[in-house]
Amino acid sequence: MAQTSMTFRVDDSLKKNFDKLCEEFGLTSTAALTVFMKAVVRERRIPFDIQAKSEYQSRIQAMNAFERMREDAAQSGLQGMSLEEINAIIRDVRNGN
Length: 97
Fold this sequence. Notes:
- The protein has helices at residues 12-25, 29-43, 55-75, 83-94.
- The protein contains four helices and no strands.
């Protein structure tokens, strides 16, 4: 089978880290990329999930969770109570009071 070469740019430190890991696996970086490419062609998809929540998305989720807790507290009559007061109520319930 005829072979062709590919050239692409990548961050220098990423390449060094990738080469080092490939060496630990007993592969060249070319062999590792070939394995990846064959898996993509065979499976007709990227063979792993590519997803990461951005810091912004994580912050939005945390703010939404906080807002839900605030709404739950308001509906339960706990709005404006301190954590110590809430814990005291929980202790009383657990103790049968």
